[in-house]
Write a structure and sequence with these properties.
Blueprint: E1 11-13, E2 20-21, E3 35-37, E4 42-45, E5 59-61, E6 66-69, E7 83-85, E8 90-91
Parallel strand pairs: 1-3, 2-4, 3-5, 4-6, 5-7, 6-8
Length: 104
């Protein structure tokens, strides 16, 4: 999934489709992105370390996909994250301690 160089992107909602492949690593780089909703697709692979690179993400919805691996420690970089929804995947491991860095 390629969405280009949308520098003012605030909301990316592409839920309930049949998108496959991985979560695009560049989505976390959009400095104004506050909501990422990829619920109910066919996404595979891991949650990218870059998912919270912008530090402004407030809502993360990745439920009902085929994601594997662990929740990345970088999730703690989302200081304003108020909602994380990652259920119905194939994630392993525990909740990273860095999640305690989230202030919301």
């Amino acid at each position: 999934m390629w969405i280009g160089n949308l520098t003012n992107l605030k909301v990316f909602a592409a839920y309930e489709n049949e998108f496959s492949g991985g979560v695009p690593v560049n989505l976390g780089l959009y400095s104004d992105l506050s909501l990422l909703n990829l619920h109910s697709n066919q996404l595979e692979g891991t949650i990218p370390e870059s998912i919270c690179a912008n530090g402004n993400l407030e809502f993360l919805v990745l439920t009902q996909n085929k994601l594997t691996g662990m929740i990345p420690d970088s999730i703690g970089n989302c200081k304003g994250l108020s909602s994380i929804r990652i259920g119905n995947n194939k994630l392993i491991g525990g909740i990273p301690k860095s999640i305690g860095n989230i202030s919301s």
